[in-house]
């Protein structure tokens, strides 16, 4: 949600043969993939934050002796523009290393001087360095059972409360920010802990991607729509490439031939490695179809979906659909022109895969399907197969409806307008996750800021001179709304 990291996510492929899609966790017998796999292998950027560690309690919801075990939760802090009593802007960490999210959330740094805000980025338990147990023990329900969104929200509440006390600034108003899964946490935090955070900015937060609130095919329908809008021919070529790829499965020497077509660094073990490689490229590119060059997951040009489609549309007339799709997907993996071959198998996942797999197998059940209209091969959803695989992997079965029981989501407008307030849901319709988010105003203070061209939490990226007017305007509206929250808070405080 990346992975994110979206963060970031369960979809299922019921018909054999099945493909593994790296962008969203999908069901494959005996296998899971991360929701938003982040490309974080490069050296970490130098960030303008001080790293701190907070002794966090293991279990906030029981009073057994083991509940009082503590672990050190990492957080980053920047007080450059802050004064005691001023606002505190908190990023509710996603499913990954908090430094990665801080480096890709320049918006908060940009606005800190305007609000004289203290910035705090809190790492999610069981990710990055915030591990309650050694890594080798994070393989079963005995330890992973303490990993949930509810525990994470309680972590944030505990840390923020302690931090304000230690800073002798308990009256400071707190606004929480989050993107993707972190955006879901930000919205839920405002609803669960309104006495701690006066408002939340939730960007690309698919809080409605559960149960049957939105159509299960919405995510892949959105990816397909992005490519169709760029070029109908491009959409049709990609749609036809899967059939050509499947033809190599029963062809003598097909895997070896496919390895050459895909310029694999070493021969792949099956056609599904090539299928996953293509699938991931198209899904991720749709998600990060940013209006300027970016290095969010891979180095990419501005509007990379359009650039992919130009490659397909300009390819030689006699080229196969598969070779044209490969050429387009290569843009995602090799825009910088540094790769002489492609590693289609065995790529390491730096995103906290085991932790997210656990969350997907317990609470974060997001059913997804692929319709016949999609540019991807159609597949249905099978809760039973998913649940059986979770049982096999972790010894647990998912709580299929837990998220909507715990946080709500159904009839959200009728419910939240009666008790919720001060939440911004920002989305760009180029982002496939937008279909599971809030796209219409719920009340005067729970608002939806939606742009036609925006991609995955693009508003959280650092501002540049090349930003289009609609993005500048979206950020301006966000700042004006937050300014209003703070003004109201300080006015109320002055009258107490």
Automatic annotation (TrEMBL):
A GO MF term: serine-type exopeptidase activity
In the UniProt record, the signal sequence range is: 1-23
Q: Which domain of life is it from?
A: Eukaryota
Set out the biological process GO terms recorded for this chain's protein. proteolysis
Alphabetized, the UniProt keywords read:
Glycoprotein, Hydrolase, Protease, Signal
| PANTHER family for this protein | ALPHA_BETA-HYDROLASES SUPERFAMILY PROTEIN, PROTEASE S28 PRO-X CARBOXYPEPTIDASE-RELATED
| Family to which the UniProt record says this protein belongs | Belongs to the peptidase S28 family.
Q: What is this protein called?
A: OLC1v1035631C1
